[in-house]
Write a structure and sequence with these properties.
single chain; mainly alpha; two-stranded antiparallel ribbon; 10 helices; 62% helix; 3% strand; globular
């Protein structure tokens, strides 16, 4: 196998990261109790954003330009159906047995009647789509959020939520357990990432218009959203938006 293209790609990433490190070294920012590792996180954010603007965003625009709406919807339904497997496991681990059974029902109906998940027939049958991951499972077990953490390639997270990467994206992802060529598996993962990025194109325009500091906007939106999900849409009014830290 010719490893030269892979080596060149790794070298390019290294150059990008070095440039971002240099650019962020003198960046001034407002300290935030929810983000004690802000210097490191901004550097990683800069790396992710540079990579996104150079590779992922153009790919997403190209995908959106050539794919009809019904294809985009079918692709997202397909990967949403795969995600329901992980959601079912996490609901079960959190003791939400009824929701877990509903999730399994969604997978069964969408995989069969919905043609491998291309059509979301389960929602039309009244089986609600849930949003659960291993970070939320740890929260249900009493594990505190920990500091905000920007992950290379994967984006916004917290110390606790970062566990979702190996558990949900790899361990509980059916794609990683199906007998197929490695290249086909990588292709499916790439399509998933590009289709998600395509969905965010319109939202990105709004963020660019209203946010004076995109990093802070994304961080605060992520932490608030996670707090909402951890409490199943009903966070306590007197609780800090950042678990494990006190604003007092």
């Amino acid at each position: 196998m010719n490893k030269q293209p892979i080596t060149q790609f790794i070298n390019i990433l290294g150059v990008i990261f070095a440039l971002v490190m240099t650019g962020c070294a003198s960046t001034e920012y407002v300290e935030n109790e929810r983000d004690p590792w802000q210097g490191f996180n901004r550097t990683v954010y800069g790396f992710n954003d540079t990579l996104d603007q150079a590779l992922l965003k153009p790919a997403a625009k190209g995908y959106q330009a050539v794919a009809p709406d019904f294809v985009e919807t079918g692709v997202r339904n397909f990967f949403s159906n795969i995600n329901d497997v992980s959601v079912a496991f996490n609901n079960l681990l959190q003791g939400k047995v009824a929701d877990a059974v509903s999730d399994v029902g969604r997978v069964l109906f969408n995989t069969t009647i919905g043609l491998l998940g291309l059509f979301d027939v389960a929602s039309e049958m009244g089986l609600q789509k849930h949003n659960e991951d291993f970070g939320q499972t740890l929260a249900a077990w009493g594990v505190e959020s920990g500091p905000y953490l920007m992950l290379p390639f994967f984006g916004p997270s917290t110390l606790r939520d970062s566990t979702s990467v190996p558990v949900d994206n790899f361990l509980l992802n059916p794609i990683n357990h199906i007998d197929m060529e490695k290249s086909d598996r990588m292709y499916l993962m790439a399509v998933d990432v590009v289709s998600v990025r395509a969905e965010l194109l319109s939202l990105e325009k709004t963020v660019d218009e209203i946010a004076t500091d995109k990093y802070s906007f994304i961080r605060d939106a992520y932490l608030d959203r996670r707090n909402y999900l951890v409490h199943d849409g009903a966070p306590p009014e007197d609780e800090s938006l950042y678990e494990g830290l006190n604003d007092e």
